[in-house]
Amino acid sequence: MAFENCSKMKDELLKIKSLAKEFAGYTANNLSKLVRIRSMSAHEKEVADELARQMAEAGFDEVRIDKLGNVIGRIGHGKKVLVFDGHIDTVDVGNRLNWQTEPFSGAICDGYVFGRGSVDQKGGPAAFVTAGRILKKLAFDRDLTIYFTGTVMEEDCDGLCWKYLIEEEKIAPDWVVITEPTNLNIYRGHRGRMEMEVSFKGISAHGSAPERGKNAIYMASRVCLEIEKLNERLKSDDFLGKGSITISQFVSDSPSLCAVADYARIHLDRRLTWGETKESAVAEIEKIVKNLDGAIEVLHYEETAYTGLRYGMEKYYPTWKIEEDHPLVTKAQQAFVALFGKTPVIDKWTFSTNGVTINGYYNIPCIGFGPGNEVLAHAPNEKVPVSDLVAASAFYAALAYSL
User: Fold this and answer.
1) Could you tell me the end-to-end alpha-carbon distance of the chain, in angstroms, rounded to an integer?
2) Does residue 171 sit in the same domain as residue 72?
3) N or C, fewer C-beta in 10 Å, the chain?
4) Residue 333 CA: distances (Å) to CA of 73, 123, 341, 396
5) Model confidence over 196-211: pLDDT tens digits?
6) Helix intervals (H) in 290-346
7) Threshold 0.90, pTM exceeds
């Protein structure tokens, strides 16, 4: 039932909005504490402990950390399962000279929280902790189990954490809200991606007589030029846009700098639009390299988490989207309109998220809604408006009531 059709729901909505504003300083301070903790992928222990502490302080019914290091908070014990997800690892700073503020200050100034991870993507978890506090304050009693997951290693391998949550923790959501930055828009998909390497074996010869050998660099270079052409003819989707491919690394080797190169390798970053798959993307490269002795490999990620557990998956991250009239999108729109009195923008991410596993592999309905603008993700001078944190915390609580 929509909020506007029920006086009780309208009353709940007013309380949610009021509490979200009342807790604005609490939310900003919680985010500041998270930002001040450096947390590269596979090194999230300290920030995981802090997020778990915040969940417990907010009154969650249960808080625990799994064997991969994901923080799992729970409110309620109903039949249906809703999850709010946000990863707690970040990329590094990059060139420090590009930053006008201290990257890990967590400073709260002029209506913003500053620092690495404020947008990508600790702002989402800070907001959903507040949403949990609001739900507990209002004695939320719907037939719903709500999980709040602070997930790990996403920056290195998006979706790996959710492979673990589904396959090992046996969490089976009916809906997931990804709290990556959306500029307070509702997102319903994004392109997939995959990583491939193509290697070439040549035959070395003295550099004074290159005709005696077979130069692997020349072989790889011919393929590179064909891949550049391939990028121009990849298919497009009306919603997700065009697929793309680029060469992100070129490595070669030879017995010496006075010899023909007998080895070369290129690394391919492939972005997949709707209808493109791992198999179709590999077939395109096979066609290019078939007469040049190129060996294609879809890469595998495997890493040791901060807990000591080693875990991995193939570096194929499927494309996903749900339709605009999907019930989850509709409920999210209703909650947004009821809260903010305007129609939300329905859009997509440019980058990739845990949705590649949640929906791409497991077909679990999910949407995105998060504080901050994605253009600041991985960029210097990252900052998120406190007003976005307030709006997000209200939206998460309202969506729980809506579902």
Assistant:
1) 9
2) yes
3) N
4) 25, 21, 11, 12
5) 999 999 999 999 999 9
6) 327-340
7) yes
In a domain, 311, yes or no: no
Vertex 391 angle, CA 172 and 62, to 5°: 40
Indicate if 350 and 252 belong to the same structural domain: no
249 is in which domain, residue-wise? 193-304
140 lies in the same domain as 239: no
Q: Binning pLDDT at 50, 70 and 90, where does residue 9 land?
A: confident
- Burial profile 374-396: b = 16 or more Cβ within 10 angstroms, e = fewer: bebbbbbebbbbbebbbbbbbbb
- Please count the structural domains in the chain: 2
**Does 202 lie in the same domain as 266?**
yes
Residue 42 lies in a domain: yes
Residues classed as catalytic: 89, 154
Residues 275 and 164 in one domain: no
Span 367-386, pLDDT tens digits: 999 999 999 999 999 999 99
Sort 8 into a burial class: Cβ within 10 Å, 0-12 / 13-18 / 19+.
Answer: exposed
Q: Got the DSSP string for 133-198?
A: HHHHHTT--SSEEEEEEEE-STTTSTTHHHHHHHHTS----SEEEE-S--TT-EE-EE-EEEEEEE
For 248-262, write each residue's pLDDT tens digit. Answer: 999 999 999 999 999
* 228 shares a domain with 163: no
